[in-house]
Amino acid sequence: MGLALHQTGHGHNHGAQGEQPNASVRAAFVHVVGDLLQSLGVLVASYIIFFKPEYKYVDPICTFLFSALVLGTTLTILRDVLLVLMEGTPKGVDFNAVRETLLAVRGVEAVHSLHIWALTAAQPLLSVHIAINAASSAQEVLEEASSRLQGAFHFHSTTIQVESYSEEMRDCRECQPPRD
């Protein structure tokens, strides 16, 4: 019923390209699968120990293996959550490629204050100032820049501020791209 109500009259997907579950859903799924595998491991280990008591070292080996499994899955989920919390550049989005895409738009002379972060693991956001030459139409440049960004990087939301280019921007420290 929820699917039917959500899809009724709602003909777009808000920029989500590949449906990725959020970190909480993924963590819950991994937890359930981990519990299932651990239960099966304990069951197998208990049968081995029941029928062959001399193999009682199977239990600590099984415990160690599943501890490593839990640690590995926890670290990957933790990494993804920390990326969002620390407002890091999302996976799959290259800062320099975004900058070059914007500079390739006809009329764009400079790009500064470029910020890329993740609202969630599946929702990258962008905010940028683009400086255009006097002969360019701000609206046309804005539309082309938005289209290229959406086509190449699938941002959930973009905020683009269009400014007139001036020669002072070339030497302005605030207008320079970050250094590696």
From TrEMBL:
<keyword id="KW-0862">Zinc</keyword>
<dbReference type="GO" id="GO:0005886">
    <property type="term" value="C:plasma membrane"/>
</dbReference>
<feature type="transmembrane region" description="Helical">
    <location>
        <begin position="57"/>
        <end position="78"/>
    </location>
</feature>
<dbReference type="GO" id="GO:0015297">
    <property type="term" value="F:antiporter activity"/>
</dbReference>
<feature type="transmembrane region" description="Helical">
    <location>
        <begin position="28"/>
        <end position="51"/>
    </location>
</feature>
<keyword id="KW-0050">Antiport</keyword>
<protein>
    <submittedName>
        <fullName>ZNT2 protein</fullName>
    </submittedName>
</protein>
<dbReference type="InterPro" id="IPR027469">
    <property type="entry name" value="Cation_efflux_TMD_sf"/>
</dbReference>
<keyword id="KW-0864">Zinc transport</keyword>
<dbReference type="InterPro" id="IPR036837">
    <property type="entry name" value="Cation_efflux_CTD_sf"/>
</dbReference>
<keyword id="KW-0812">Transmembrane</keyword>
<dbReference type="GO" id="GO:0010043">
    <property type="term" value="P:response to zinc ion"/>
</dbReference>
<feature type="domain" description="Cation efflux protein cytoplasmic">
    <location>
        <begin position="90"/>
        <end position="165"/>
    </location>
</feature>
<keyword id="KW-0472">Membrane</keyword>
<dbReference type="InterPro" id="IPR027470">
    <property type="entry name" value="Cation_efflux_CTD"/>
</dbReference>
<dbReference type="InterPro" id="IPR002524">
    <property type="entry name" value="Cation_efflux"/>
</dbReference>
<comment type="similarity">
    <text>Belongs to the cation diffusion facilitator (CDF) transporter (TC 2.A.4) family. SLC30A subfamily.</text>
</comment>
<dbReference type="GO" id="GO:0005385">
    <property type="term" value="F:zinc ion transmembrane transporter activity"/>
</dbReference>
<dbReference type="InterPro" id="IPR050681">
    <property type="entry name" value="CDF/SLC30A"/>
</dbReference>
<dbReference type="Pfam" id="PF01545">
    <property type="entry name" value="Cation_efflux"/>
</dbReference>
<dbReference type="Pfam" id="PF16916">
    <property type="entry name" value="ZT_dimer"/>
</dbReference>
<keyword id="KW-1133">Transmembrane helix</keyword>
<dbReference type="InterPro" id="IPR058533">
    <property type="entry name" value="Cation_efflux_TM"/>
</dbReference>
<keyword id="KW-0406">Ion transport</keyword>
<keyword id="KW-0813">Transport</keyword>
<feature type="domain" description="Cation efflux protein transmembrane">
    <location>
        <begin position="15"/>
        <end position="86"/>
    </location>
</feature>
